[in-house]
Design brief:
Order of helices and strands: HEHHHEEEEEH
Structural class: alpha+beta
Strand order of the largest sheet: 1-2-3-6
Oligomer: single chain
Number of domains: 1
Largest sheet: 4 strands, antiparallel
Radius of gyration: 16 Å
Shape: globular
Number of helices: 5
Strand content: 15-25%
Distance between the termini: 27 Å
Length: 132
């Protein structure tokens, strides 16, 4: 990244205040997102449809992070056929899913960059993919 873009990025990110994330289990994340007591999560799982159950089964082994506004799933393996691949020019690809706890749309690259920096670090690059 050029020096101009580094300065612009820092200036724009300074306006974004993102509280710290904490690593949680998928069950704890689900209980927070669904606003149910953590002990009742298995009851909720039995109510999920097939696609939701497949999502749960795949992502239960991934890293989950949450703060007061956002929920992030980090998949460092990308071993699912639905992904583009696991490497890009011999560099490993990770899939990071970021969502608002209020299910609001997020399309502020400074905010997304700040979240990425908190979860994986500033030295990692990120790509946003728009599927066909």
């Amino acid at each position: 990244m050029g020096k101009y873009y580094e300065r612009l990025s820092k200036r724009l990110r300074a306006k974004q205040q993102v509280s710290s994330f904490r690593k949680v289990s998928i069950d704890e994340a689900a209980s927070i997102i669904l606003d149910i007591p953590q002990g009742d999560i298995r009851f909720t799982f039995s109510m999920l449809d097939k696609n939701q159950q497949e999502f749960y089964e795949y992502y239960k082994t991934k890293e989950h992070y949450i703060n007061d506004k956002y929920y992030v799933i980090l998949d460092r393996e990308c071993n699912d056929d639905r992904f583009v691949g696991s490497h890009f020019f011999d560099h490993p690809l990770w899939n990071m899913r970021i969502q608002s706890l209020k299910l609001e749309k997020i399309h502020d690259w400074c905010l997304l960059q700040e979240i990425k920096n908190q979860i994986v670090g500033e030295k990692f690059e990120a790509l946003e993919l728009y599927p066909a």
